[in-house]
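The protein record passed on for reference:
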Amino acid sequence: MARVAKKTARKTPAKRKSVTRKSPTRAQAATASVDPAVAKAQTAVDKAQAQLDAHSKKLDAARAKAKAAKAKAAKSAKAVDKRAAKTAANGVARANEKARDLRAKLAQQKSNLAKEKTLAAARATEAASKAKVQEMEERLSARAQSDLEKAKAAFEVKWLKARAKADAQKVKAASRKLSAKAKAAEKKAKAKLREIERKEAAKAKAKTRKAPAKRKTAAKRGRPAKKA
């Protein structure tokens, strides 16, 4: 009898209660991504973990009950005690089977959570990349506008300088042409003036020659006759 009791004690170690533990993902849930799929998967993990924790307590209680019933049946010859021990053992077996199902469910939910976190991270990376591309596009667009204004200003200065040079050359050429034309007109005017002066001098000279002749004629006409 004592040997049976020791065997039972080895089957139900006292530290089996360590099954009742907090989910390692609960602490992460507070800082988890706000991605809806991740939040949904985290909720499923928390629910599965809570179910396993609750069942673990029931399993521990069933094991304690089966241990006590088995110990009582070992000391008793009553059939009712034997049936109670068997029933309790069956209960433990069913509880163990359910615990395995819950642990498998929890493992699956954790796997789903890991997948959703991976997908969320990929989506976040893609969104961040798109944001960076958009930010770069906007920055380059603004820089292009600024560079365009600078280029316009530089082109305007260069164009005005070239235009001023071209206009100066035109003005210089026109000035030379008009100066030459003015000099030619002045030369022509001087020549004409000399011609006029020459004609006037000739007329004056002619008048000077005619004046003495007229005076001689007038003198002859006005002289008195000689006496006989």
Residues 79-222 form the longest helix (144 residues). Residues 40 and 228 are 174 Å apart (CA to CA). The chain has four helices and no strands. The two ends are 224 Å apart (CA to CA).
